User: What shape does this take?
Amino acid sequence: MATSRPAVVVRELRWTDFDPLRETYYLLYEERETNPVLGIHLFAERPSLADEVRWFAGLYERVLRGDAVVRVAEVDGRVVGNCVVGRIGATATAENGHLGLLGILVHRDYRGRGVGRALLRSTLEGCRGIFELVHLSVWVENPRARRLYEEFGFVPIGRVPAGNRRGNRYHDDDLMILDLRNGAPNR
Assistant: This one.
């Protein structure tokens, strides 16, 4: 029997999203133990609660300044992921202020259920008029994510050999870019 896709609600970031997003992020450190090619960049050790508070406060401030676009996904009222595009330059008027870097996180229990697609669609729509180019890196061992990015118009622009070192193994990163100067794709 096929499982139906959950109703995903995507919205802007709220201050109250800190705990569920931190919990989802912390789960990645457990998941990495059983999946060494988990295709998301992590620190060698799980950040402390104080580190996460500083990160979230900084992200929230960037959103308020207009230097980041953040969307949060909910399923049945539960926060299950987020997508961030943050300005590369120090300000919008900096020479690289038109560039955004994309990162996405979906709770492991909700992957493959349309959450990432919904987050990308909303986040990229929110980037209109804020960023001209959005780039990302994706682990070569994560073809599912790469296909999703390609659906939204991201194109590969190169590879960083050994761009990630997890333990004593190296993993390549594919670099991808989306040109928003003619508007975000509608997927």
